[in-house]
Amino acid sequence: MDTSNDGRLSSAELKAGFKALGVEVSDAEMAVIVEYFDTNKDGTVDLQELVVGLRGRMSEDRKAVVSEAYAKLDVTGDGVVTLDDLAQAYRVDDHPDVKTGKHSRIVVLRHHLDLFDAYTKDGTVTLDDFYEYYADVGATIHDDIYFCWMIRSAWKLKDYLPLLPSADKSFKTTHHSIWAASK
Ligand SMILES: [Ca+2]
Ligand SMILES: [Ca+2]
Ligand SMILES: [Ca+2]
Fold first, then answer.
1. What is the pTM for the complete model shown?
2. I want to staple 154 with a disulfide (CB 3.0 to 4.6 A). Which of 42, 62, 82, 175 is the partner?
3. Which residues are near ligand 3, the ion (C-beta closer than 5 Å)?
């Protein structure tokens, strides 16, 4: 679709793309489509916007509980999550790779930071990165209540209920066992 090869889809390119798929879209419809995907409002749709748009965004309920987890991870309380925060939040000395000497503490912490640094990939985790990470994690979980309960439990947020043994295994494994072992 990206005929100009600039990594972004203009509404003309999108229109041509739809046409190639056999779908005729009017200019008015195209405007609605671009409006939906174009989150940074620059009038074009880049790959990231397309991926996020197709995956779907998180509901306000989900965002609220993910924000709570973020506030907990931001131990230093400066509004951004860095290695400093992770070093205080995670007790990595008990991590298997650290114990066996396979990786240093810093490597394990860096790995976790990279995991959450899902959107801007700049070495710090903003709330948007964190939303992005959990939008991916939650993409296959269709029930908001279930999702919120799992986040609450995984991060031991206020009034959390423990995860049941039957809880989604893949979800649990993305929740790195070290948080469970943390203080
Ligand atoms: Ca855009
Ligand atoms: Ca911080
Ligand atoms: Ca980032």
1. 0.70
2. 175
3. 117, 120, 122, 129
Ligand 2 center from residue 122 Cα (angstroms): 15
Please answer whether residues 90 and 178 qualify as being in contact, where contact means their C-beta atoms are separated by less than 8 angstroms.
yes
Expressed in angstroms and rounded, the spacing between residue 51 Cα and the centre of ligand 1 is: 12
Instruction: Measure 161 CA to ligand 3 centroid, in angstroms.
Output: 30
**Predicted confidence (pLDDT) per residue in 155-173, tens digit:** 889 878 776 655 555 555 4
Listed in sequence order, the residues at least 6 apart from 143 whose beta carbon sits closer than 8 Å to its beta carbon are none
CA of 121 relative to ligand 3 center, distance in Å: 5
**Domains delineated in the chain:** 8-55 (1.10.238.10), 60-180 (1.10.238.10)
- Residues 23-52 have pLDDT tens digits of 888 989 989 989 988 988 999 998 888 888
